[in-house]
Amino acid sequence: MLDQIVFYFFAALAVISAVLVVTRRNIVQSAIFLITALLATAGIFLQLHAEFLFIVQVILYAGGIMVLFVFVIMLINLDVSLHQVQFNRQWWLGLVLALALGAQLTVAIAVGRSGLPLGEPAPATMLEPSTELVGKVLFSEYMLPFEIASILLLVAMIGAVVMAKKKV
Amino acid sequence: MADQRVPFATHADSTVLGADEIVLNMGPQHPSTHGVLRVKLRLDGEKVIGSECVIGYLHRGVEKIAEHRTYTQFAPYVDRMDYVAAVSNGLGYCEAVEKLLGAEAPLRARVIRTILTELQRIASHLFWLGTHALDIGALTPLFYCLREREEILKIFEKYCGARLTTHAFRIGGLQYEAYDEFEKDVERFCKPFDKRVDEYESLLTGNRIWVGRTKGIGILTAKEAIDYAASGPVIRASGVKWDIRKAMPYAAYDLYKFEIPTGKNGDTFDRYIVRMEEMRQSRLICLQAIENIPAGPIMGKVGKVLKPPPGEVYHAIEAPKGELGYYIVSDGTTQPYRVRIRPPSLINLEAFDKMIRGHLVADVVAIIGTLDIVLGEVDR
Amino acid sequence: MIPTSHYLFLSLGLFTVGVIGVVTRRNVIIILMSIELMLNAVNINLVAFSRLVGSAEGHVFAIFIITDAAAEAAVGLGIIIAFFRNRETLLGDEMDLLKW
Amino acid sequence: MHSLIDFLLTYWVQLVCAVIIVAVLPLVAGYIVLMERKVMADMQARLGPMRVGPHGLLQPIADALKLLIKEDIIPDEADKAIFWVAPLISVTAGMLAMSTLAIGPWFQIADLNIGLLFIVGISALGIFGIVLGGWSSNSHYSLLGALRSAAQLVSYETAAGMAIVGALMLAGTLSTREIIATQNDYGVWFVFAAPVGFFIYVVASIAETNRAPFDLPEAESELVAGYMTEYSGFRWALYFLAEYTNMVVVASIATTLFLGGWLRPFAGTRAFNFLDFLPSVLLLGVAGYCFYRAPKQPVKIQKMVLAAVGAMIILVALILAAPLLAPAGSFVASMKAGLHGAFWFLLKVGLYIYLFMWLRFTFPRYRFDQLMRLGWQFLIPLSIVNVMGIGVALVLHRHFGWSHWTAFPLTTILTLAVAGLLAAAGEKQEKTHAIVGEEA
Question: B1 — contact with chain D (CB < 8 Å)?
Fold first, then answer.
């Protein structure tokens, strides 16, 4: 019961804020709703007993990436963009195609029901990946991808610095 | 409109990044512009790339008022210029008028004047130290400084009844004889005062943060200081040994031995050190003076109605903040034809733009503080 | 308990909204934020499946995706700042220097 | 309906704790402010608040009332919705972070297995309150304060995080409860095993809570009040509450990780068991002082209030002493862990906050570039070296059989040597940095 309340609450929150992110005129408000959506997702992770992922989501996504976003938005002029047309010229085409994609994915899920036990709840006895287990898997089987990810971060860092620097 | 002269464009809708610079308006209502100074800063991020001081918010037309008051009546007005060093202001004015009259105050009066002025210098420097440290973020020195300043103000109060705008001197000498315990009070204050200065220094001088915040900030080389006609501790910190007390002795300064502390680099830290040392020197002067206050009259012969002969006079003294000069033109009547005051704060403030360029916003308050300006004197 | 398909539908909804944001908005920052939404939707999917099949791999991949999102945001915002400095605009359809 | 009752029955302890936190925290924050003002006054040769209540004891309540009924000004050009919500974000983040703190073995809302990360992560969200509040005020001072704050928090969070990682490696768990249990097993608090880490955490936590000498986001002499410039009345009070909540949070983290949480000093040694009486004796001393001062108060009601305060403190002292005097095995004796744990925890938190205040009244403020240089060029490298040092010490201990007493001091000395090198390098660079970029 509590589980369901939590899930549907966070799900509704996530979807509503996601819609607001793409429809708001003011970028700062968009950013705030994106934070809300990300935190709602974090709530869903918690409901899925993915505690470590929950905190990673909060620290990295909400606390790190979004701070970067808000920082940049504050640096950049806002008043001008408020009075511009917000949607591009092919918006109707994009909307139709995106909805088509959504419909396709819906069909995919519906079809997938037959193969996997999607319709019923995941068995509670199934193992719940604890922080410890995630760490073990990450640092044994996925050691190489992990290192590559760290190189990716380093490259991104250098790239961001080079690009944002005023005059080289 | 004064704003027409602003050397840079003020974009009303400029952003931090878009225009590459923003204009920050510091003051006149700002906690650390020491009154009502308004500084327009052109910022690139946090770096100051230009500044303009807008003054006049405290302008009371002191010089104009002088033309409609008799010489005696004008004396209290000068106290209201540099209100944290009112005694020094009064001394400069009285001596200027005496020079114009061709009179001189008796020796006893001059010695007492010297003592009071030096006490006032200590009080002014104490107040400067407290507020300067507060600007840089050290909360505590302010209260220690005010504690000692209070002692000095008590001596003033006992002497003439007023603490801040004392109007302690009269043209031709003193109105009040020194009270009975005067020497004892001054001695009681001065004897332990060097320990107190050491105490302030122990809080600040060796402090890494303090040194980091003041060393190399707002450098004014000796040549620049002379070019800007800076005076007082500001020019001495740049290494120029210029002190009117030695160069053109007035009052009774030629009777006493004291040093002129100078700095080397002309940065905020040097100005701090110079002022600290000046407090110690002032203490020494006071101690020398109270040892032997000559007996005699306290009022020279200047007559009841002051009517200086036509002519002009310029007389400067070493006020706590620098050279305080009075240029008085007399047309032979009881009222001055023109009084022009050279306020040290205003002239020193001229160097502000030179000193701030290339530094950060945080240094603005450090440099305003180190110039030791009093807006009452800048605007008059 | 909640059936796994509900997580999938939630993820689908978020993903579609993100796609709509990317293809219809003009403001590049919002486009970037929509991409974050899409990545986020993928994460929900991964974690839900991870629970369904009972392995930690989904979590590991979600962590990689978050890492990727951080890198993408840093570089993307760097580009936006550089672009804004040169062209004074945030509109995606005005970023056409390479268009011919 | 049944499920609701079930829910309440299962979680009533947690709910009570949560209510206590929300209800009592503002009061605690108010009294921390009073303590700060009193400490400041003492260091500055003054008396501090003396008017409201004996020795200003009721001052926080008067202040809170005043702020509540003050006019709430929202600037015309402000983004009203964000302006309105920003202080709430700060306060909420601070209070949420309190939820996994273990104040004594009894008082904890949730013992998550990611406990400490939760606190760090949630309290990091408070930054949005500051940034959005500064931005929405539409004032240059606020914006500069917000930008400074964002940059400062992000930089110092890294250093603080690395310092925490060092201690976590020693503990081997993220749960606050188990961290303290491990320190009990070690027989030594982690501050002695990883002193450099503790030092880094102290510095970084001061910066994270925007306290002097790192209070640049609200540097009153430069930016008026930074991000709070346009706030007034109760909204301003909320920011203040958030700041003090964050202080309590970082002090609690430091206490849990480095200072042994609710453990008594020498908790494992029987010879020091007499220290169990210390809480009661300390409180009796305070109460005695209250009674000594009470007759000297000028007004009758103040005499009564001070005497009542003294009586209350005696009551608390008796409660703390009761489990020690009660026969072993009885119910009263079993309360010892909870009561004494809470006392020691709060005492350590109080001392940590006192350290903050002490630093605030002693040091001038850093400049922004100096702050950034200190963070990025000194603290972060040092914290990484610290993590490596602790790792080496653990390996030496576990795989090579070195004793604690050689492994940890050795790595600490090595880390300190690196710190010296870093400081020397920073000094050299500082000389070239005196004027920032004259060429531009």
Answer: no
